[in-house]
Design goal:
This protein has about 350 residues and is α/β, with parallel strands linked by helices. About 45% of the residues lie in helices and about 20% in strands. It has eleven helices and twelve strands. Helix 2 runs parallel beside helix 3, helix 5 runs parallel beside helix 7 and helix 6 packs across helix 8. It starts with 5 loop residues before the first strand and ends with a strand. Bound molecules: 5'-O-[(R)-(carboxyoxy)(hydroxy)phosphoryl]adenosine and zinc ion. The site of 5'-O-[(R)-(carboxyoxy)(hydroxy)phosphoryl]adenosine (KG4) has 20 residues, from helix 5 and helix 6.
């Protein structure tokens, strides 16, 4: 029997500094230092603040991950690091740190695409067979991927503007609810009447799996301003109704586009059709249950990794790196940091840049 590989993973592409040690599919440690407090006053991630915090925290974070895993550098087979896409200062901090460690230890260096980390997580947690359909939905990403192999992805659609997490965060700000917006909008929506405001579902009439959320955001702003102009402010019930209307529109867009994505995926004739969801927005109850129902209707297995592995973490980077290492796909010290790095080179490039960095 071959010995399982042991890989250190490093992640610093957005606002989480993370390090993890993986042995085979066992997560020996996974440490995440979040930066939410550092950026809270600015209403979004400030790239320079993030980069500085990553540079300060990476050493401690890696040390803690190695300690918790009870391994030394001699026990490792490789060092995997997110080399993009993301906020360039943060990605650079991680890549420079990993290069330093690789140069000092002689260990193989593996540059990993952050999106591949998310997309391969269902393999790490549940050994899901290829090809599977993935909806990656977070504050910075929103795309449908058919995952065919650890290094082969088909991007069949995605947002043409904002990511849904961004829209949840903006909605919370407009309604005077706390950040991060997703959980607070979800909570407020529980007591709301989603039918009170007529909010749009952009692109639903168009063919294909692309989505748009910025028009929804603007419509919500107008609806809120209408109420404020009438009453001089928002009552708790107004907040709840606006939150519910917004959330229902997002659920509708994601579900109806997921149905189309499942049709495209079915053409690949998978033996065990599986639809996986990951990213912070995957925590949303109504979104999960709508997608679960869709999968039940279409005979597709629905899966979502545990939340700690859905959001940014380094265990997923270690896993994606381990897959590359097993296939001899290693880098050298010329590895560069890439702000943009689409998983599927054949797909049309995406426009725009989210508050959490360039969209891939
Ligand atoms: O994956 P993540 O932790 O970070 C990146 O964006 O990379 O996702 C964070 C996003 C935030 O925009 C947050 O508002 C959203 O996920 N989120 C949610 C929920 N929990 C977190 N959105 C909707 N419903 C939730 N329960
Ligand atoms: Zn991410």
């Amino acid at each position: 029997m071959t010995r399982p590989l042991t890989v250190l993973g490093i992640e610093s592409s957005c606002d989480d500094t993370a390090a993890a040690v993986l042995r085979g599919s066992d997560i020996l440690s996974s440490v995440v230092y979040g930066q939410t407090d550092l950026h809270a006053a600015f209403g979004g991630v400030v790239p320079e603040v993030a980069a500085r915090a990553h540079a300060e925290k990476l050493d401690h974070c890696i040390e803690q991950a190695m300690d918790e895993a009870d391994v030394g550098f001699d026990d490792l087979d490789g060092i995997a690091v997110t080399a993009g896409p993301g906020l360039i200062g943060g990605v650079l901090s991680g890549v420079m740190c990993a290069k330093g460690l690789a140069a000092a230890t002689g260990l193989p260096l593996i540059g990993v695409n952050h999106l591949a980390g998310h997309a391969l997580t269902p393999r790490l947690t549940d050994d899901v067979p290829y090809p599977y359909l993935m909806l990656l939905v977070s504050g910075g990403h929103c795309q449908f991927l058919i995952v065919e192999a650890h290094d082969r992805y088909r991007r069949i659609g995605g947002t043409i503007d904002d990511a849904p997490g961004e829209a949840f965060d903006k909605t919370a700000r407009l309604l005077g609810l706390p950040q991060p917006g997703g959980p607070s909008v979800e909570r407020a929506a529980r007591d709301g009447d989603a039918s009170r405001f007529d909010l749009p579902r952009p692109l639903l009439g168009q063919p294909g799996c692309d989505m748009s959320f910025s028009g929804l955001k603007t419509a919500l702003l107008r609806a809120r301003d209408g109420v404020v102009a009438q009453k001089g402010g928002l009552t708790t019930q107004d907040q709840a109704d606006l939150a519910a209307g917004f959330q229902e529109a997002v659920v509708d867009i994601l579900t109806r586009k997921s149905r189309r994505a499942l049709e495209v995926y079915a053409q690949a004739s998978p033996d065990t059709p599986t639809f996986a969801i990951a990213g912070g927005v995957a925590a949303n109850g109504p979104i999960r249950s709508a997608l679960q129902t869709l999968c039940d209707e279409t005979g597709t297995a629905f899966m979502s990794p545990p939340m700690a592995l859905c959001t940014d973490n380094a265990a997923m980077i270690a896993y994606a790196g381990m897959e590359r290492l097993r296939h001899g796909q290693i880098d050298d010290l010329t590895l560069s940091a890439r702000p943009r790095w689409p998983l599927d080179d054949r797909a049309a490039p995406m426009l725009g840049s989210g508050k959490k960095g360039a969209k891939a």
